Amino acid sequence: MAKRDYSLLGPNARHAVETGLAAAEWYHTDIPRAQMKELMKRSDQPAIRDTILLFASMIGLAGIGIAFWSSWWSAPFWLAYGVLYGSAMDSRWHECSHGTAFKTRHYNDWLYQIASFCMVRNPVSWRWSHARHHTDTIIVGRDPEIVAMRPPALFRIAVNFLGIFDAYDGWKRMLYNASGRIHPEEADYIPEQEQPKVIRVARIWVAIYAATIALALAMGSILPLMVIGLPRLYGAWHHVLTGVMQHAGLADNVTDHRLNSRTVYINPVSRFIYWNMNYHVEHHMFPMVPYHRLPDLHAAIKHDLPAANTSMWQAYREILPILRRQLAYEDVFLKRDLPPTAKPYREDFHAAALGAAAE
Asked: Which residue intervals define the domain Fatty acid desaturase in the entry (predicted)?
């Protein structure tokens, strides 16, 4: 396997720019303009409904957890609260960063700020980070959000089921920014005029965490931290479980989302937590379609996409053998078959990458 430098300031980043992989023109399934216009219509109602359900559930679960705090009966309520705090907020952060969850802009902004705090992702820097992820999806040296690198850091991925590295990195960067500094990699994708906002948000967050820790010390109990902070750790497993599926084991350095993204059918509870991001090829191809219309978008374009995985279990049965081979430094990935109704992959453009594909 050729060595890959995932740094945004390294040789692979320069190579991506020089070869035209950076900010390239991506493949999109043809869809009638009127139909796409309909799919892109935003609405407040679905997201208001889901947000009320989310916060009502969090308040209820935390309330029961506090009431039963002295007993192990509180554990399942804290675990459920943690999944909503440490995983459902990941998808809310994501969708609101696109500005498509609600029709009303400030509703998107409010939920984005709350979800960013829960996930310890600075809402200014991560908005620009995620824009880069969509512009240069799984382009080595350009995409700052690649989870399964080559060879894959399986230990890091496994430990992140408890949020260890992600949360630690988030808190570390929060303190770094709060000290008045912008990391050089952040400066690569955050416009200079936005950088003071990064510092201001980090300082507000430090104040909130300081107040929470002070309350915990005054009470002689970790209970305040069970509500704010710790759920980012014990509730992270679901967003890692679903997030790894998005791109792991698929191609890098290609400009066709059918080669580097994965759609998976999942159960209704996980779809609520994940806010339909299991339709991930569709989301990357048309990121301005709101989450609640992604099933309709899937139905409209699935004739041009690889068959969706039928479950998370089936997806991981596909992913893990590829990751094991990559761990052994084999330069392989899964090239998924297209249906007869689909337009073919651009073999000429992606010849170098497709030549290494695992069949």
From this structure: 70-315
